[in-house]
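ok, trying the design again with the full structure, not the truncated one.
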């Protein structure tokens, strides 16, 4: 049970990062491999605002500031950089986002250093016991906020005009443009939303674990989670994150060495072989 609780909490972090992949893919059919690094930046911005001797802002003030800054960063990334790739292949966009991830890790290391640091959060280090099981307060927050965000985003895409407009733009940008949808602005907004989700994931992760610039590489596992759940499905992103999150602690406990470390990727390979569109695939015919 202790492994299950730990795995669920870590799986929710993977799920939140995976949602960032899904959000951008649903809107633009592009894959942002810098999503994990955006999560890392969100965590470091919060840490800088909270832990820094000169800033020393209360945690509950630092959080909305960091989330807002990451939303602005996501919007600017699309409007100033990604938008200039219009007409290029998806591979070019993928390579660009990988390069942006390297830049983000370099900047984080230059500003905050490369040593692991802990966020001074009011929920860090708090826990309670149920019999022999230790449940951390950050784990409860991670699970609760992840479920809430999944429901909110699912309803947003399914029921709101803006959410439907985003899906329409992803299926056929030219047709969406002729129907009066401001495609460029919609794409920038979805990048902003992705930055917000990444910041929330980073803050929750930093409340439970130490962070360093290499934390952004968690995006690789999150991408695997998005593919396992179904790249295009928000509930699938959470499900894929939970699958990987639960596999890791049990593999580390009951398997040895390299086999334990590659287990999440072995599951990814099996999913791609037997269900290539993911567990909760949302494959549809595009409408013209």
């Amino acid at each position: 049970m202790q492994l299950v609780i730990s795995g669920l909490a870590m799986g929710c972090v993977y799920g939140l990062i995976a949602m960032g992949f899904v959000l951008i893919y649903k809107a633009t059919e592009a894959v942002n491999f810098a999503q994990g690094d955006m999560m890392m930046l969100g965590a470091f911005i919060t840490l800088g605002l909270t832990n820094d001797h000169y800033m020393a802002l209360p945690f509950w003030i630092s959080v909305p500031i960091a989330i807002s800054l990451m939303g602005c960063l996501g919007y600017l990334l699309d409007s100033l950089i990604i938008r200039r790739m219009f007409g290029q292949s998806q591979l070019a966009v993928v390579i660009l986002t990988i390069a942006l991830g390297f830049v983000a890790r370099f900047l984080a290391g230059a500003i905050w250093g490369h040593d692991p640091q802990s966020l001074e959060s009011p929920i860090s280090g708090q826990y309670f016991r149920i019999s022999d099981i230790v449940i951390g307060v950050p784990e409860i927050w991670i699970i609760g906020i992840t479920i809430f965000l999944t429901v909110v985003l699912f309803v947003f895409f399914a029921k709101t005009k803006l959410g439907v407009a985003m899906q329409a733009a992803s299926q056929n940008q030219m047709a969406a443009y002729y129907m009066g949808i401001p495609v460029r602005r919609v794409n920038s907004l979805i990048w902003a939303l992705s930055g917000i989700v990444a910041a929330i994931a980073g803050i929750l992760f930093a409340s439970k674990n130490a962070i360093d610039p290499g934390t952004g590489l968690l995006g690789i596992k999150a991408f695997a989670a998005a593919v396992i759940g179904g790249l295009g499905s928000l509930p699938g992103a959470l499900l894929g994150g939970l699958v990987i999150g639960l596999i890791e602690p049990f593999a580390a406990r009951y398997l040895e060495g390299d086999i334990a470390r590659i287990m999440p990727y072995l599951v990814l390979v099996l999913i791609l072989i037997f269900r290539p569109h993911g567990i909760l695939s949302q494959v549809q015919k595009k409408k013209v």
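Keeping the full-length input from now on. The CA atoms of residues 39 and 198 lie 4 Å apart.
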